[in-house]
Design a protein that fits this description.
Number of strands: 8
Structural class: alpha/beta
Number of helices: 12
Distance between the termini: 91 Å
CATH architecture: 3-Layer(aba) Sandwich
CATH topology: Rossmann fold
Number of domains: 1
CATH class: Alpha Beta
Length: 349
Amino acid sequence: MTTTTRRKVGIASAIVGAASAGVAAAALAKRYAVGRIRLRPDPEADEPFGELRGRERTLITSDEVALHIEIDGPEDAPVTIVFCHGYTHTLDSWHYQRRDLREDYRILLWDQRSHGLSQRGGEQDSSIERLGEDLYEVLETFVQGPCVLVGHSMGGMTIMALADSHPELFGDRIRGVALIATSAGKLAEITLGLPALVAKGLHKVAPATVSVLGRGGSLVDKTRHVGNDVAFLVLRHFGFGDSKNVSPTVVDFVESMIRSTPTEVIADFYPALMNHDKLSALGVLDGVPTAIMVGEKDWLTPPEHSRAIAAALPKAQLTEVPETSHLIQLERPGVVNEALRDLVKRVEL
């Protein structure tokens, strides 16, 4: 080997060694940061997330998809509260609401199609309109009396789709609505907390990127099988407004729900979320008591989206919760539960 060749090999080895050392150092730093977070006192450490269960039911929809449903609380309660969860979540995302409200109210929770324990639907049926029809069939089968609908994020959009297709239900059957951290449209214009030019570029490449990931979903899912420090830190920072004080157990719980959602499902529903536009359907809700809630630091469905909904519903009550992000029902359960109790009281009068 010549002197020149040995020099090139030495330089290359040094570069590879430095890069490897950098990656190792970054991994160690992340592990150290997560380790320090987990060592802090965690009041939610013993909270049984994902373990609360109700009376399980199954609904076969008109397009033959099996939906998982759970009913909790007294069957003779005058009002049923129906909870519709968000994108990549499951019915367990309503843990605190189920825990604190089921003693007093009949509660129905369901996994939206392709999420949680519900059956996978096809790509062609991964639409907000189909979710609205699913909700209609759930109500027709399991809710005979008056009810209040509660939707978080995509769940709020599901309620809007129901209002668009079955406006006759609102007023007599559906006595109240809570729209939590959701949007009536224009999600493709949100900045995600990034500079405008960066966000615009991201929106341009996102559809193609998500589509590619969806086509290789099974392979991608293998790399998502076990939670990692990066996912924990990213979710902690972006999912919660008060990230420094949020319970690590809550972060882990949400991360496990997201991780359990197949990549193909994430890809299938992404276009539906970006193309969602139900502003014209909101007038249907003006005839029933409506509560609108959003976190002040919500980057996914920003406060201006909830303000737009409130502007279309002059009688609605809008609450913007300080130091809170998109996962408001898990980050500020007391505030959400109090608002829901107040809404039900307004309905029962």
